[in-house]
Amino acid sequence: MELSPDAAIEAIGFAAAITTTLCWLPQAVRLIRTRETRGISLSSYGFFSAGIALWLIYGLLIGNAPMIAANTVTLALTLVIVAMKLRYG
């Protein structure tokens, strides 16, 4: 079965979303397990989380499913990291 050009573009978007989103999972899991936040920059993660929130809003406004999915999960993971830094940092 051959994908239409639009379906292929959407598939690439989802592949990119999955790849870039999953990169935050090891960091979040490590912080949850060790509670070691000394090497984490609160300001960097705070600004990054704000940027991700804006990308999520943008994705919602234009109705882009890969962007919405990726930024929802990424925001959740980075907010876990921010919360751990605030609690244990």
TrEMBL record:
Keywords of this entry: Membrane, Sugar transport, Transmembrane, Transmembrane helix, Transport
Main location, first listed in the record: membrane
Domain of life: Bacteria
Mode of membrane association: Multi-pass membrane protein
Span of the signal peptide: none
Pfam family, one: PQ-loop
Transmembrane segments annotated in the record for this chain: 12-32, 44-62, 68-86
Subcellular location: Membrane
The UniProt record lists the keyword Membrane: yes
Molecular function as annotated in GO: sugar transmembrane transporter activity
GO cellular component: membrane
Protein name: Sugar transporter SemiSWEET
Classification of source organism: Bacteria, Pseudomonadati, Pseudomonadota, Alphaproteobacteria, Hyphomicrobiales
